[in-house]
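Reopening this one. Same input as before:
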Amino acid sequence: MKNIMTLLLASVLMLAGCSLIKDAAEVTITTDLTTTIPVVVTGAKSVDIEPISIAFSQSQDLELAENEDIEPYLEKIREIHMKSLVVTVNGLTSGQSIGTIALDVTGVGNICTQMNITSTGNSFTPSIATGILEQVGAKLKSDRKITFTVHGDASGPMAFTVNLVFDTDIVAGALD
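Same output, byte for byte:
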């Protein structure tokens, strides 16, 4: 009977010990998840004095496998914590402006909206509710990719890029 109890106790300790070792072997990778969305706004500009705005919309995927920092841990990811976002619009020239630009994530919804972007005021850190960033991280974890859509209106025909940089912590199990 003593042998059975000792064996049972040893088994319980081994199972609990494995779990503790597994949890202790977590690694947190701090990285920037980035994507660049090229946008071409087409349409005719009015010859009237009244300014015109031309609508635009463009989508782009962000895939975890494209980030070399986390590629070795793709199958071991436990959590994705997106902490902040920096948006930079490049390619605007003097006199060109974006009246409104919105960023959506498929399956989550609108992330942010910004107004009055020019060649000199082209970078911003939007205020995003923590719950929204958590939803984006959960979607990215489950699907291994997310689709961004930028849409809005511009002052006329133009081409520009929207660069998204998410400051992110990714927790992975090194022993998973």
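So the earlier flakiness isn't reproducible anymore. For the record, The chain has a mean pLDDT of 87.
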